[in-house]
Each structure stands twice: as structure tokens, then as C-alpha cells.
Amino acid sequence: MKFLLTSAGINNNSIQDALVDMLGKPIAESSALCIPTAMYGHPWVGPGVKAWQFISGNSENSMVELGWKSVGVLELTALPSIAEDRWVPLVRETDVLLVAGGDALYLCHWMRQSGLADLLPSLHAVYVGMSAGSMVMAPNIGEDFVGWTPPNGGDETLGLVDFAMFPHLDHEMLPGNTMAAAERWAAGMQGPAYAMDDQTAIKVIDGAVEVVSEGHWKLFSP
């Protein structure tokens, strides 16, 4: 699977060009499934109007509203209650998964419970994450980002990439997300860790990592 891990969606030309290159065809010819699940676990963004804005393509962060050939909704909390043959073929046939931000540990829990986590490595789709939707791919997220508490505790996530992410660096609405805070966070992480602002994304294909940015970012090596 190919990963485009963003801080705040497809919000500049460089990130959008990277997405089109990964798809291998225009957005207008590509099918998408949006996954809002992470939003429900975070008190700032769900449930309610912001989840609707994401799904309907009326959010501030461009993902669903890019002009896809088709867009469907894949709600992970519903999947354990329906047969796999109802949803697995749909996921296998789609070109891109658009995964909203919110709470990374809540998202990780439902990715595992739903069976999507086991399915992801075999997919040919492009996985586009935003904030928590990106962070969930890391081995862990760090104590700073623990909100919703998983049944077994801890901050472990899926580990489908070998680095961690600190999103929304220097965001005007998040005064605590400074480079100094990112450095303290990175000091507690076991592996490579990226601090990235909302104009930055990380592209991963076959394990090769490339930063796509019109803003600023920093790699902290262990």
C-alpha cells in the first residue's frame, strides 16, 4: 500500500501533485472511501457537525472535496456487525482511502476491531491520512497525544511505517504545538520522528520515505 500522511489534508499543490502521482491517474477518474471514525473519539471534532462536514466535503481541510469520481463512507465502528463480504470487496476495489483526523488511539482500536488493519498491507489503494489518520500508521504516538484510552492502555498504534509524527506544528490555534514541544516529544520516542506543519505531508512507497512540503518540518533521529 502507498501512504500519503498529511498534517491537514491535501491543502497545497505539491501535496496534491504527489497524490495524483501515487494514484497514477487523475482524481476525477479515481474512487474514494472516506473514513470519519477517528473524529468520534476526539471531543473537538466529533460527533456532530464536523463529522458531517468531513463526510460531505464541506470541511476546511481538502480531502473529500477534491472532485473524486465517486466517494463512499466506510464507518469502522459498524464493520464488526456486518459480514466481511459486504465491505471487503468494496475496500479492495477503491483507489484511495481518505482517513480523517481525531483521536489516533480510537482510530487504531477500530481499525483492529473492524479487520481493516489486517487488510491494509494487501491493498493497492493509496492511503491518505490527516493528523490522527496519519499518526495511526506509526509504531506509537507518544504520551502527549494520548486522549481516548484503549482497553489495554499504552500509546501503541499500527506500525505500518517506522516513524512517528507530530502534526500541526506552529499552528496558530494550537499554541502548545511549538518546535520546542516537538523536540521534547521526540526525545521520548523510540525511532525516527517528524514534526510537520499543515503544509507538509510524508509520502511512503515500498518503505521509501519522501517529505512533500511547502511549509516547514523537522526530522528527529534517535
From TrEMBL:
Keywords: Hydrolase, Protease, Serine protease. The keyword rRNA-binding does not apply. It holds the Pfam family Peptidase_S51. The keyword Hydrolase applies. It comes from the Bacteria. Belongs to the peptidase S51 family. This is Peptidase E.
